[in-house]
Amino acid sequence: MKYYDKLIFELSKKGRTAYSLPKVTLPCRMEKELDESLARTEPLELPEVSEVDVVRHYTALSQMNFGVDTGFYPLGSCTMKYNPKINEEIAAMQSFAALHPLQPKETTEGAERVIAELDAALAAITGMRHFTFKPCAGAHGELTGLMIIREYHLSRGDMKRTKIIVPDSAHGTNPASAAACGLEIVEAKSNADGLVDVEDLRPLLDDTIAGIMMTNPNTLGLFEKDICRIATLVHEAGGLLYYDGANMNPLLGKVRPGDMGFDVMHLNLHKTFSTPHGGGGPGSGPVGVCEKLVPFLGVNTSGYHGNFGVMLRAYAYILMLGRENVKLAGPLAVLNANYIKESLKHKYKLPITSVCKHEFVFDGLINDGAKEGVAGATTLDVAKRLLDYGFHAPTIYFPLLFHQALMIEPTETESKETLDDFIAVMEQIADEAAQDANILHEAPHATPISRPDETTAARNPILHY
Amino acid sequence: MNKFPYFPHTDEDLRLMLARVGVESLDDLYSDVPDDFLYKGEYDLKPAMSEQEVRAYFEGLADRNSHLTCFVGQGAYDHYTPSVVPYITQRSEFLTAYTPYQCEISQGTLRYIFEYQSMVCRLTGMDVSNASMYDGPTAAAEAMRMAIACARKKDTVLLSSTLLPQVIDVVKTYAKYYGARIVMISAEDGQTSRDALSALLESDDTIAGVILPSINRYGIIEDHSSFADAVHAKKAILIEYCDLSTLAVLKTPAEWGADVAVGDGQSLGIPLCYGGPYVGFMACRKDYLRKLPGRIVGQTLDKDGKRVFVLTLQAREQHIRREKATSNICSNESLMALWVTVYLSLMGSEGMKEVNELSYDGAHYLYDELLKTGKFEKVFDRPFLKEFVLKPLIDVQSLQTKLYNAGFFAALQTEEGYVTFCVTEKRTVDEMNRLISIIKED
Asked: Which residues contact A439 (CB under 8 A, 6 or more apart)?
């Protein structure tokens, strides 16, 4: 990766152009007819560049970026699996890309078939009855799913249910989505094994509880073994169970949330179903529900039919997987995670030693190299040092249950060789820390830039050119 | 092991890896899952297809869509996409990256978001922009929540009844569960009524914000002179809902005195794609920065003094603040933000002006010619840009069928019983003349 310091605005030179439009054949009327009072007065300053300037500039920017195609991306709870290329070609097909969302259904039969078949496939995989594809991302799915839960209670005249239980290990989006849905958050504590404490949960359940949001396996990568009891308790109290699909990957082909008693769930098609993350979207967060909630699936949370382009990619992936390969996706992801965990636990603190699912959490280095005059290497330091060796860092400082959390999720698309390379580098970093933690404090050394001054960025924000 | 291109494990790999983990089989990795929950049936999916079969399968489905020449907008506009845009956005370094949490290896993403924010600020006249929202309607819904968060103790947001139907619908959905009250402002002669707005502001002390369309559901360019003063006099905030492309020529939200600008950036060359992915945008005056939802990229220096870009002001966001965050948004539409950034870099201000002129001229030509057919009459006599409505004097159902059969998507019926048309620079005079001649035939 090479540092490149231009912004597109800085390439601008008056008189250059990068567009070509058809010749004007009709009389030019806008300038004459559009009343001044409705027209923009402030001049619009956009770059004036040639086409090659644009191509080289964005190519140079891309070369400062790391993606799944660049290398291993063990980012916990993000499921950075390989993004198949056929998916991109399918999504770009003109016969789909040119469809207007308001075209009548008789002219979009193919697209409607894709949606219906994807719905059926996701239902088969998850054990839910039907999905809505309106949500454009995971958090959007959470919000939509919670609206469905509220609508269900309201439809029964059950107006008191305004609280939702969220475990302390939940993704940050869970409480944020609940707040956006007008729900009051009641936190459920984890026990020493990192699981939801059923005894702690029991007293929280009353007739004001709309439901519980569960991530299973949770963000420590642990399967919530007591899910059956939890489901019974919550249902008996009149609440519903929400499944956060961000961690669905280890269950792909193995366990169906619908069978565990979940009433509502979302999936992240950009995680479990291989569509690219795009640097932070577009994603797709379809919400699936059990039979009795199907009447509430119509809750309208986005403009048209959701991110159809992402749905096409996910369906292409499901067709490639088929009923044979789907059964291996989750298990191989789990194998990869356990393989790394077992290979590194002699160098990194492993607070929870049981078998993990798709991800697991280390709590920093066993020997962080702290000595007189030298502070020990932190999780942030380890993460930054990994960048020097050509790996993306794991998720850090999450979940909040551990101070030095380092959350690793390899996914099933990584080979043993890739994992071995990563393990070797993680061992080397641990050895470096033990010898001289300063090497880590100053990392990264080999990236286009060094650590940024984030304090100044927030204190004196410069947010545009 | 099945041979499958996305699973690299050989039988030997499996054996060695299972041994390291200390289990005998893949099934043993699920020993913590109660047996009842292990799915033992056959998944009701199609048998695995080869890549060639997948391609053929989708080609078969694609053939069942009708390819229609598009003369409808209503929030999704058929503008031309220059080749460079998909070429750049398909670069895997952009496409397959995650959110730029590790800024040292994400300067590409961070820089284009900074450029995107800069361009949105220039188009809207606002001081700050976030890194994108899902789409226009959800951006409007977030603005509704932002207005209430800014106002404290006020729970009402006024919506113009001339906003696109899907915008009204989504804002109302969000409001219902969030606990906000929505009151509609009536329209007069096709635009938000200034008198109705004043009356509502006078009679109600709980109004936190007002959402108005810059170009409305009828395609009319609204005149918002003195609206901002009325809204600000009641200490509410003014939110303008805009079509980003048209702001190259129309009065900006800032020029109307608005505090927040939201809307969709789809009109900046993003394919229709049956409704998404598009890109919502949200920008505001700097006074409201701390209440702005979503990611924001800022400029700073690294340890060596180089100019670098980072995600900043994250204390507003869900992964830090959890339930106290300004929004639950996490993934947004980053790649689509790159899409519109590359598009705007190519078009420049001259290109943007020309796109709007070509659309304007085409739409006005079609408007005049359609009226000449005698099959429609005027509804409003108001300025429009690329989209307009007419009152049909003929049976719409049979007209539409005839148009589909001839390969056109046009004359979509609105809730009010009008028919709506839209013309972009992509529509040729020849296409318009063919459309008109089919309509004349009746």
From this structure: A385, A432, A433
In chain B, domain spans: 69-80+348-441, 84-342
pLDDT grade for B442, boundaries at 50, 70 and 90: low
CA gap B211, B217 in Å, rounded: 14
CA distance B411 to B403: 9
> Strand, coil or helix: what is B192?
strand
Same structural domain, A403 and A270? no
Of A99, A136, A414, the CB nearest to B274: A99
- CB-based burial of residue A14 (10 Å sphere; 0-12 exposed, 13-18 middle, 19+ buried)? exposed
Domain that holds residue A443: 331-453
Length of chain A: 465
Residue of higher predicted confidence among B164 and B314: B164
- Cα separation, A454 vs B295, in Å, equals 15
Query: Is the previous residue joined to A282 through a cis bond, with omega within 30 degrees of 0?
Result: yes
Quick: pLDDT tens for B75-105.
999 999 999 999 999 999 999 999 999 999 9
Half-sphere exposure of B296 (CA within 13 A, CB side): 33
- Evaluate whether B290 touches B328 at the Cβ level (below 8 Å): no
Domain of A405: which CATH number?
3.90.1150.10
Indicate yes or no: CB of A412 within 8 angstroms of CB of B276.
Answer: no
Top CATH class of B84-342 equals alpha beta
Q: Quick check: A277 contacting B, CB < 8 Å?
A: yes
Q: Over chain A (465 residues), what is each successive 10-residue block's mean pLDDT?
A: 96 97 92 96 97 98 98 96 98 97 96 98 98 98 98 97 95 94 94 90 96 96 95 97 97 97 98 98 98 98 98 98 97 98 98 95 97 95 98 95 95 98 98 96 96 96 97
In chain A, the number of structural domains is: 3
Please say if the pLDDT value at position B299 is more than 70: yes
Chain A positions in Cβ-Cβ contact with residue B25 (cut-off 8 Å): none
| Predicted confidence (pLDDT) at residue B1 exceeds the cutoff of 80 | no
Strands A184-188 and B237-243: unpaired
Same domain flag for A30 and A175: no
Question: What pLDDT is recorded for position B275?
Answer: 98
List Cβ neighbours of A32 (8 Å cut-off, separation of 6 or more).
none
Compare CB distances from A282 to B277, B344, B346 and report the shortest one's residue: B277
A183 and A291 part of one domain: yes
C-alpha distances out from residue B286 to A281, B78, B330, B409, Å: 26, 33, 22, 42
Please report whether residue A257 resides in a domain.
yes
**Under a CB-based contact definition with an 8 Å cutoff, are residues B311 and B100 in contact?**
yes
User: Is there a domain that residue A460 lies in?
Assistant: no
Residue A126 lies in a domain: yes
**Whole-number Å distance between alpha carbons of A404 and A306:** 38
3-class DSSP assignment, residue B143: helix
d(CA B336, CA A261): 37
The residue with tokens 């922009």 is B129
Q: Model pTM?
A: 0.98
Residues A371 and A305 placed together within one structural domain of the fold: no
Please name the member of B17, B170, B278 whose beta carbon is closest to the beta carbon of A339: B17
Does any domain span residue A115? yes
CB atoms within 10 A of CB A319: 25
Tell me how close the Cα of B163 comes to any Cα of chain A, in angstroms: 12
Q: How far apart are the two ends of chain B, measured CA to CA in Å?
A: 65
Domain B69-80+348-441 sits in CATH at 3.90.1150.10
Residues A154 and A205 in one domain: yes
Whether residues A332 and B350 touch (CB distance < 8 A) is answered with no
pLDDT at B323: 85
ipTM exceeding cut-off 0.90 for this assembly: yes
Q: Are B283 and B265 in contact, with CB atoms under 8 Å apart? A: no
Does B173 have pLDDT greater than 80? yes
Q: In the numeric block, which tokens belong to residue B323?
A: 């339930």
